[in-house]
Structure formats: C-alpha cells, structure tokens
Design brief:
Blueprint lengths: L3 E8 L2 E8 L2 E7 L9 H15 L3 E2 L6 E2 H17 L8 E2 L2 E2 L10 E3 L4 H10 L5 E6 L15 H9 L3 E7 L1 H7 L4 H16 L3 E5 L26 E5 L5 H8 L3 H4 L17 H12 L15 H6 L11 H10 L3 H27 L4 H7 L2 E2 L2 E2 L7
Parallel strand pairs: 4-6, 5-7, 8-9, 8-11, 9-10, 11-12
Antiparallel strand pairs: 1-2, 2-3, 3-10, 13-14
C-alpha cells in the first residue's frame, strides 16, 4: 500500500488534506487545521490497519516525514492488534522520520459526537479552553449540501457546555466500508488522524468501556497513548466510570441531557427504539427521567423493550450495571426482570455455542458474510 498524491490546498470553506490510496481519494476538510502540521501522521493513522488487514507493506516514503517517536511505537501498536485479531498481519512500514516539534500542550481537543461518553468526558474531565472535535463523515457519510455539517442538537449541546466546536469533514467512512473494515476496528485511527490535523497539544478520546470490561476495540486505554507525538499527546479518558455512572452524571443537568444524541440511525435525533437509545433510556428511566426521542417512541415500555434486546451484540455486558442501578433505585420489579432476561441470554448463548461447535462455518464463508471486526470475523464474542 503506497499512498501518493498527498496535497494540502486552500478551499473557500477552509483547507483540504487529501491522499490517493489504491485509486481512492481520501480527504479531510476543515476551517480549523493547524497551519504548521503537514499531515503525514494523519495518513499513517488511517492506513495502518487497512494495510495490516491486507498483509501489505505500508510505504509512506512519498509523504512528508512522521515523528520518530510515533514510528518507534508502531511495532507495539501492531503487536497489540495482531494478538487481538488473528486476521491481521504484522507489516513493514517505510517512512521518512523527523524528531518532531514539541508544543506547550496548548489548545486541547476532545473528540465529541454529542453522545454519552463524549458529553461525560467534557463534564468530568474537560478543560475550559478545549475545543470539541466533531467529525462529519464518521458515523454517517459526510453531509450533502442540503444538510449542515453539524447536527443542530450537537451545536446546541456544545454551546450549553460552553465549548467551541472544531468540525472536520471527511469521506473516511466511505473508504473503510469499501475495504469491508468495521468502524470498531478502524475508528481509533480516524480520531487520531483528525486530532493530528487540528494540531492541539492534547487529544482526549472518551472511553467506550470500563477497566473491568476491556476488549479489542479501535480505541483502548492502553493503545491510544501509543499514538502520541511530540506535538499531540493522546489521552484515553473515562474508563473508571460505567455507562450508567456517566448517564447519571449527565442527568444532573436537564438542559444538557435534552441535547444528548446517542442514536446511530439518524444524524439529527434519537429514534428511541434502537439498542443504543434503549440502553440510554433504560438507565434514565431508572433515574426518573428520559431521553429526548422521536414522538412515536415516547410512550413505549422502555425497560421491557430493552430487556428484549439484551442478547444483541454486546448489550448483555451492561446487565450487571443495570442490576446495580435498579437495586439502588429500590426497583425490585426491574431487578427481577433483568435477572430473568440474564437467564434467557445465558441459555441463548449456550445454544449458540453448541450450534457453532456442531456446524462451524469456514473462514472463507464467514469473510463473505461479515466485515472484518476488531476481534476477527463474525459476531462479537460473549463478554460476560
């Protein structure tokens, strides 16, 4: 894999950084890019895992130099990923290197989607002068001309948090979908790439999981700091809080809660019925409030609906948190519901394990059906 055609160019709306990778023009645009960041490390951030997935040498020699310290971290980054995911291969990286220019850690940046993890990171660990990085083209394709790059609710939430938004537009999601790579595998590289281009002294990546529940993922408290450069320190924040803890902290300010955007089904609002919406709403209902959702989802039985989703993906891993929250709230009925749901989930997993043991599918067959995930191929492994 040999990225070429690297360019930085001025646009009426800001600046564009682009590179050609296997015939695909990958680009990033923003009004907030630092003038003295050339962008080579951003290309490394988004291309390392795709090259490892294909088992190809990553040749960055046609790009500007990357920091020596970051280049020295690549063997450890690759060691983590190849141990997590046997479908990935350790590869050679060829690049020009430089000592890099340290900064005074000014202009901190926090990755911000408007969801629970990001909002909590600002409330619990933010700095008054930090900028919030919103990426248009991260969870959804970049906005067309008819839709604003920043959802109105995200803009209102940033204003209520008294933070400046720095927006980066990119077609990264289109590229990684063409490569059949999941967001869970590659999103950490996209976050650090955008953070590098903004040139802040510190980039905070909000946690997705707790110390008690660490698993292969695109961002990770042990992996993220390895992407640090002399200019930008990468900080993974929030692993000491469970998701229910974070939701409880956010709920203390109803004006902030009213603008939280957790749904991946729409860039503009919460559907109220997907697994992420129901997970958030279930915790809030136990706390005596609710999420702002679509009108037709406002009057459903949230707790009953969520218990039916506990066998999907990684939802069962939150069961312990909800049991503790229900007990703290003195809600014996919900505690019993969660325990019964846990029994059904355990039985379903047991039957699924038996089915996979008796009728395994070949790796080639699985590869045709699913994307390459953080942990390999196929459904997410049972975590609890």
């Amino acid at each position: 894999m040999r990225p070429s055609g690297f360019r930085r160019e001025r646009l009426p709306s800001g600046e564009r950084v682009s590179v050609i990778i296997d015939g695909f023009e990958l680009w990033f645009e923003s009004e907030s890019f630092s003038v003295d960041v050339d962008g080579a490390e951003a290309v490394l951030g988004v291309s390392l895992l795709p090259a490892m997935a294909q088992g190809r040498t990553l040749d960055l020699s046609m790009l500007p130099a990357i920091p020596e310290s970051l280049f020295a971290s690549l063997p450890e980054i690759q060691s983590a990923w190849t141990q997590w995911n046997l479908m990935l291969q350790r590869i050679e990286v060829v690049a020009q290197t430089t000592a890099g220019r340290p900064t005074d850690r000014a202009n901190p940046v926090t990755c911000f989607s408007g969801g629970v993890d990001a909002t909590h990171a600002v409330l619990a660990g933010g700095e008054a002068k930090e900028r919030l990085l919103y990426i248009d083209g991260f969870d959804h394709p970049p906005s067309p001309g008819s839709r604003p790059a920043i959802p109105e609710r995200v803009a209102r939430l940033a204003a209520k948090l008294d933070r400046e938004l720095a927006v980066v537009r990119t077609n990264w999601i289109t590229w990684r979908r063409q490569l059949k790579l999941s967001g869970g595998l590659t999103h950490g590289g996209a976050l650090v790439a955008c953070g590098y281009l903004l040139g802040g002294g510190q980039l905070t990546i909000p946690s997705s999981s707790t110390w008690a529940w660490l698993y292969p993922w695109g961002t990770h408290p042990l992996l993220d700091p390895l992407w640090s450069t002399p200019r930008t320190t990468i900080r993974h924040f929030g692993s000491e809080w469970t998701r229910c803890d974070k939701i409880e902290e956010i709920a203390r300010d109803p004006s902030v809660l009213a603008e939280v955007l957790v749904c991946h089904g729409s860039p503009d609002g919460n559907c109220g019925v997907c697994a992420k919406c129901l997970r958030t709403r279930a915790a809030l209902v136990l706390l005596g409030t609710d999420l702002a959702v679509a009108p037709d989802a406002q009057h459903i039985d949230v707790l009953a609906a969520y218990t039916r989703r506990l066998a999907e993906g990684s939802e069962s891993s939150y069961l312990g948190e909800f049991l503790q929250l229900a007990r703290r709230a003195g809600n014996a009925r919900v505690s019993a519901q969660m325990q019964r749901a846990g029994g059904r989930v355990a039985l379903r997993f047991l039957l699924g394990d038996a089915r996979r043991l008796l009728a395994p599918r070949s790796t080639a067959s699985r590869a045709r059906l699913v994307d390459l995930q953080s942990w390999g191929l196929g459904p997410m492994p049972r975590l609890s």
